[in-house]
Amino acid sequence: MEKEAFNQYIENRYQKQMDFYRGSSGKNQTKYKYFQWILIVLSAIAPVLTALITKWPHLQLATVVITAMVAIITTGLKTFQYQELWVNYRATYEQLKPEIHYYNFNVGPYGDSGIDKESLFVSRIEAILDKEHQAWPISKKLHENQNQGEKGDVGTMAQE
Fold first, then answer.
1. Is 49:62 a contact under the CB 8 Å cutoff?
2. Structural domain harbouring 108
C-alpha cells in the first residue's frame, strides 16, 4: 500500500472512527447514567407517596404520575440501549486504540519480515469495525444502509 494512501486512511478513517467511538461512548454513558439516576430517585419516591396516600389522598395523582414515569424511563432505557451502546462503543474504541502503536513499534504480526504493514493495519482495523457493525440490531443496520445510500459512500463511519 502506498504511504500517501495509508496516511489518508489513518486520517480519514482510523482517526475519525476513534473520535466517533470515543465520543459516542461518552454520550451514551452520560445518557444512561442520567436516566438511571432519575429512575432510582423516582423509584424511591413512589412507595413513600403510596404509603402517604391514606393520610393525604391528594397525593394519589402524583403517585400515579411518578409510577408512570418510572415505567416510561425503564422502557426507554431498554429501547434506546444506552448502556449497551456505551459498552460496545467503548470496547471497540479500546480494540482500535493499540493498533497504531503495534504498527509503529512493529509489535506482533507487524514485526514479521516481508509483511506489508500498511495493508495488515487496514485489514485489522476493518475487521474490528466489521465485528462491531455485525453486532448492530437490524433497525440500526437499516438506518445505516439508508444513510449510506443518501451519501453514496459505502465506507462511511458508523452513525450514532
1. yes
2. 3-148
The predicted-structure confidence for 120-136, as pLDDT tens digits, reads as follows 999 999 999 999 988 77
Number of domains in the chain: 1
Angstrom distances, CA of residue 19 to CA of 11, 22, 59, 146, 149 = 11, 5, 48, 22, 23
Q: Is residue 27 part of a domain?
A: yes
Q: Would the pTM count as exceeding 0.70?
A: yes
User: Cα 48 vs. chain centroid, distance in angstroms?
Assistant: 36
Instruction: Give the burial class of 75: count Cβ atoms within 10 A of its Cβ; 0-12 exposed, 13-18 middle, 19 or more buried.
Output: exposed
- Amino acid 156: pLDDT: 43
**Has residue 45 been placed in a domain?**
yes
CA pair distance 72, 75, nearest whole angstrom: 5
- Domain annotation covers residue 156: no
* CB count in 10 Å sphere of residue 46: 19
Q: How far apart are CA 89 and CA 132, in angstroms?
A: 8
Question: What is the DSSP code string of 120-141?
Answer: HHHHHHHHHHHHHHHTS-HHHH
d(CA 85, CA 30): 11
